[in-house]
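Dear colleagues,

As part of the handover before I leave the project, I'm documenting each prediction I ran so the next person doesn't have to rerun anything. This entry is a single chain, and its sequence is reproduced below.
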Amino acid sequence: MRTHHLRSGYKVHTTYQSLTTRGLTTLVKSSIPSKIAPSIDCGTEAETLSVQISLLATTLTVHNIYKSPAKSINAEALFAAASKDGSIITGDFNAHHPFLNSISATNQTGRHLHALLQEYPDVTLLNNVTEATHLKGGRLDLTFLSSAIQRDAKWQLHPVLTSMHLAIEVKLELEKYPPPPPPAKRWSPEFANWEKFETAMTVWALEYIKNPHIDISTLSLDFNKQLDAAASVSMPQKKHSERKHADAWYYNSCIKEMNTRINRTRKLFRRYRTDELHDLAVEIIKHSVQVSLEVKTDKWYSWCHEANFSTSLANIWGWFNKVSGKYSTPRVTHPDPLAEANRIGNNFADRAKSTNLPLQTINRQRTLLPIRNNIIETACNMRDDTDSPYTMEQLNTALAKGRKDTAPGADFITYSMLRSMGSHAKLVYLHLITGHIERLCPTTWNQQDTKPLPKPKEPDTYRRIALISCTEKVAERMVLNRLQWKIGQLHHHLYAYRSGIDT
């Protein structure tokens, strides 16, 4: 069995075709979480493919069945499972029986299914037995449904799709995931009017300086609101596009290799800025552009070669739209990202909690906890030379390190906005940062924008990325600089917070 994605937005679950099997396929919309489930044994002569679909309030299992006319099937375990859980059992059973109004003589499969329907009343046959599912008049394609999810279920033949077997359409009234929320607004600092932005921030900052009696958390919220308001009058919003490079109409393994080379060279150059690496990066980018042009040309010629008198205008216009960039495949993430992020976070917390440690270690921690808390409390109450307020020079030094606008947090504030807000607004920002000396921290700085993203090689599993606000990251950078000055060189076994060393 295998699973792969179609560019048209569907996830394809298949079983392999062999000399003795035809193979089965189940397509599920990519925006709906689905995975291949353990198949229920229906005998060695029947082909089965079970796919589990996760909806908002229901887990639905679709059992795809094929049994050739000359073979047998034992579906008792399948019906037993369907009587307990929400399931659809559908496929070509090649069954004949009077309860199906079959035109052929009753066979063993028909008798077997008829007996199972009597034995398991919680499983229902959806077919309208007066309508044939085969051009020769047979009712070979059957759909069974768990009674628990049968609410307003509708079974009908599709008006258009047909081959020797007529296509069947089944509609279920199930609660599904709500549509994803509209994308949040994002600003385009590269097209900003920074004079207008600084003016708006300065007017607000002067008002605050006149009346500074406000708590840290409220000030942080007002500060973020004003940055957003200043951005709305000084810079346009970005156009949202969920297009990935792998969705490009010309993407292939050659383009993937070129992108990998460029990314590696750029990372190396950012780390070691030498003339040799600069020249190497320029040459690799030139070569990549030339290769991309050749790949695009070959792809376009292949489309032109495919075109003939039977090619529809819709396909031809589709090619033009892909080349022009008008249509792009949307990036599919989890349909309920908050719930998935919480699940991943809780799973990590369960695995990382102290109760998983050996009993000897837990007891040792309990013994040391009061001592450690006392040391921390004593240190917090002592005055130190590092408790002096931060200066404007230290803030500008920390802001200079964030030269490039990386992915912002949930507030969509970028480094360029913090650098360009003017000296009066920076004084207010310094007041926010200096609050930690008095053990004050804005509540919004304890929050992060967490997103689950599908793993490239395992699209059914997700990894969590956490985006922290740039206002908090600048403050952390200033605190870190002061801590490193105080304690000196970090231990060589510590891999976090060391420049040039990843965790």
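The first helix runs from residue 76 to 82. The chain has a mean pLDDT of 82.

All the best with the project,
I.
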